[in-house]
């Protein structure tokens, strides 16, 4: 669901991935997390926090283990609170 034209002209080091059905999933999120880790270099001694919504693609055992091992703290927002969290956008 992506075309080669969409994958050119982006910032250096950008990655482009798409699922077969066009929707986000836990595999794509893990690919993004690995890319994020490679560029931000979090560690257990110097962790980073990622604030995310509660989408199913952000919640998997593999994602949790990867984050724990690499100094990434996922902070999911509570469901049905976007009206209160809007200033975070």
From TrEMBL:
Q: Which GO terms describe its molecular function?
A: nucleic acid binding
The record, for InterPro entries, names: DDE_SF_endonuclease_dom, RNaseH_sf
What's a Pfam family this protein contains?
Answer: DDE_1
**Boundaries of each DDE-1 domain copy?**
13-89
List the protein's name: DDE-1 domain-containing protein
